Amino acid sequence: MTKNIKNKIYTLVCIFILFFCANAFAQNFFKKANITDIVIDYAGKVFINGEKAVDGDEIGVFVDDGNGGELIVGSAIIGNIADGQYFVHIYGDDSTTPKKDGAMVGDQLIFRFRQKSSKKTFIISPAYMKAVPTKNVSLPSIPPVFNINAQQVGLLNIDI
Fold first, then answer.
1. Can you give the pLDDT at residue 22?
2. Can you give the pLDDT at residue 160?
3. Gap between the Cα atoms of 92 and 115, Å rounded
4. Is the sign of the CA dihedral 160, 29, 63, 59 positive or negative?
5. pLDDT at 4
6. Sites in the chain below the pLDDT cut of 70
7. Does residue 70 contact residue 63 with C-beta atoms inside 8 Å?
8. How far is CA 48 from CA 81, 87, 113, 131, in A?
9. What sections of the chain are H helices per DSSP?
10. What are phi and psi of 151, to 5 degrees?
11. What is the pLDDT of residue 10?
């Protein structure tokens, strides 16, 4: 193989890594939740002072861990699916393990918002949440509560 062809292949590989694999190395503020077989999904739009949230901001969802702390059960980067919107898998507890590793039926879901530009994190009060009826899916409760009977819930918009 000539040196010219090797240089072109090397260049193409570098371009591929830079453009297509960048997200694989992106650091999220919220750690990933424990993935279990039990999952429900939440989605919605996020507004800050009436303006659409910036893609790259994050949503983290937590529950009480039973020991005075919190356990992350889901996280999402705003804009991964659509501009200014989030889609988050919220994982339930694996009953085959002794330790709580996900949300349990009836656990209140605590939503947090991380603004990338200011590096500030906010707890999202239920007062800033709005359930939006959506065809063929359950209407989310406010405050949101983990319910395994609702695999998909309607839109839960957040306006901070």
1. 37
2. 84
3. 26
4. positive
5. 55
6. 1-27, 150-152
7. yes
8. 19, 17, 10, 17
9. 3-20
10. -65, -40
11. 45
DSSP labels, 126-140: GGGEEEE--TTSBPP
Domain boundaries, the chain: 28-159
Q: How far apart are CA 52 and CA 137, in angstroms?
A: 24
Distance CA 114, CA 55 (A): 11
CATH number listed for the domain at residues 28-159:
2.60.40
Q: Where are the beta strands (DSSP E) in the chain?
A: 39-48, 51-52, 58-64, 70-77, 85-91, 110-115, 120-123, 129-132, 152-159
Tokens 């694989």 belong to residue? 24
pLDDT at 12: 40
Task: Report which residue type is found at 60.
Answer: G
The answer for residues whose C-beta is within 8 angstroms of residue 53's C-beta and 6 or more apart is 45, 46, 47, 78, 84, 113, 115
